[in-house]
User: Fold these one by one.
Assistant:
Number 1:
Amino acid sequence: MSLHIQSVGTQGPDIVFLHGWGLSARIWESLAGRLKNRFRCHLVDLPGHGESPAGATGLNNWLDAVVERIDRPAVFVGWSLGGLIALGAARRYPERLQGLVLVATLARFIRERGNDYGMKQSAIEATRRGLSEDFSTTLSEFLMQQVLGEPGAARAVRSLRNDLMDQPPAQEALERGLDILFEADFRDALGDIEAPALVIAGARDRMAHPDGMAAMADAMPNAQFWRVERAAHAPFISHEKPFADRLATFVDACVQGGQAG
């Protein structure tokens, strides 16, 4: 599977950015602009999103395609659905990760018995039905839910909508992404992920509850947790500068063999 990857920056450690459901690598461009003088940023279009063809389906096929295109160890940054891809890469290819950054991601996204966090199964099913009935409205409403409650919601909504309208994803890819959100469960694998990890939660996130993310960080051997106050599901947009600063510090520490506090 051939993925489209936009690389920004020509020197320093490598950072791989994995976007969320329904969007594309373009969502990271502003953040990468702050980091490009110190890092090589690789902005990945997941299968069927942005400029990448749909290709094979399933979590393992998606993460295999990403790792195949990155020819050196790197820090993987995954947001929401992209965080599940990053978690899968950390478990499947630990030698390829210098560090792991999980943004608004849960090890299990479906709320069920034994898991008090995440989305209701009915919400995922309603989104799937809506894709067939009213593709554009369903996708727009889902993306709007990601920034509710943020002080910079208007700017975040513009970023999300611009990305969506300029590069709409394939409907099949959206459905396969929902499959991953519905099926993936990394709870039992967290204790085996030894890479340095930074878990970043928005305090107002309605999709990936910060308490659930804190518990996830506690289950990982080398993880630190950062709750971004007044942020919702997209803290790298609403709080771009502090996010970039914290990420840069973490990446430097991973490369140097330590871990920033």
Number 2:
Amino acid sequence: MKKIIGLIKLIFLAALMLIFVVYSSAVVRPRKDELPNDTSNKVSGFYALQENSLDILFMGTSHTYYGFNPSVIYERTGLSSYVFAGECQPISVTYHYLVEALKTQKPQLVVLDVFALMPQADVCQTEGIIKVNLEDLKFSRNKIEALKLIKGEDLIQNIFDISIYKERWNLMTLEDLMYPLETHFNENFGYTEGYPVNQPLYVREMYFSDEKKMPDREELSYLYKIFELVEKNNIELLLVKTPYYESYEEYTITNYVFQEANEAGYQTLNFNQYYDELGFVFDRDGDVWHCNVRGSWKISNMLSEYLFEHYTISISESPYADAYHNQYIRTIQKMFWSELEAEHYLSYLKDMNMTFLINYEAKEQCNLTAEEWSLLKEIGVKKFNPKKNYLAVVCNGEVVYEINHNEDFTDWISVQDSTVTVSSYDGFVTFDIDGKTTEFNHYGLNLQVYDLKTNELMDRISLDTIWGFEILR
């Protein structure tokens, strides 16, 4: 009996020691939300999700988390999604991510970007990057098996980070000590917003060939393991390639990988073949590797249409409806605020479910070209007479109010669940939305963009109608 009690005490002490070491490893580990590039806690954010709350799981490398915006997917389809991906993540690691994900989620569809199988990915798929991808996974048999991918290094040291990050021992704060014990909701659902820069535009060559080349055999074997895993769990799989500067060799590798997927019964979608349909232009919508917020907007919209055409996915009420919408608002604001060209700005208005208010005072000469008149008509401005003052309210692409005038007046309009009061008095124009009043004070054609769901002003600009159709802020 004494031996049994002694053994129980020994096991208990060993368990306590293991818990302490696992906890201490999490404390000293650098937090991913503090890194300059991958600016969100993708792994801990995934663990913060309610169980079985996702319809779609996006997986792969940084191409995935810069490429697919869950808020756009939700606004277009009503489907909940999360980007469970990692920087330069080898597909062998992605397999273990999927094993981990299926412990708490039952997605109907997995969308996997195949950049990890391309030669360009070799430059960053180091032993260190594998460690960074795996270190925030919860301690489990799956994590240990994944860490065995790091060849030639001490497995125990990689499992427990205390010795790796020993320089942080004396830097710990109370916040660091509490961090592993808390949940950390990812408000971007794993998506990283690449901020656009208005730099020179480049046209990327498109390839059209049936030639195929096999990628690295060992890494390819993990793609087959992913096939087996989704089939076992009755999950649909879609292989994709987001826009990037691919070589001809990588084009042929994509052909090979997609053929393997098609023969296994899975759909494939190569966005590199749809630049014209997307209106995707390098480097305006993305750089050499990644989409920015504009590019991800375009491919997320195309993917939403593709899902409706090729899949039957049941839609259930999401516990994150408000969070998705808030992310959607942040996305649109970044697109508006970074845009310098009127043509592209108006195309956003045409494609977004926004409400915008328009005012024009006929005090100056109007010098719009035929093309610029056409752009205005596309967003709903049809009765604009430059010789008269003009007011309009456009909601979701529909003109709900439009008037040419030269006299004072006040009108009331019902727009969705909001009341908009439009008034002009002694040359001053006022819009009031549910008690929030705004005025216009620029010359030219003034626009104010609102999200009526949150009653939030998204952006405010003027379009110069005299010296050139330019955006004024």
Number 3:
Amino acid sequence: MAAQRSQTTDDDHRVVPFRQRDLGASGRAPRPAEPPDPPNEAFSKYEGGEEREDTYRHRMVVNLAALAFTIVLALAGVWLAMQIADMRKNQDCLLSGRRNCAPIDAHALER
């Protein structure tokens, strides 16, 4: 165990040397003299063109559909939580030994 412990501490304190960049008189690293390579032709299919407006419109329609679905899902969750709370209240009433735990509709008596 002691040999393993000394071995892990040596690995924890390993120093990795970095070479310093040669900074110019301005204190900044010099820029490369040659321009970067032109983009690969294989990426041209991902460039936006005339289809850009169509994809934007399609994305907005999909976003609106996702928003509507999320709202419907949230409303269904609220309705379900209210139904569960009402059922729990009725079940607690029945389990306590009471009778007539169902809610009474006052408007039904007037008809």
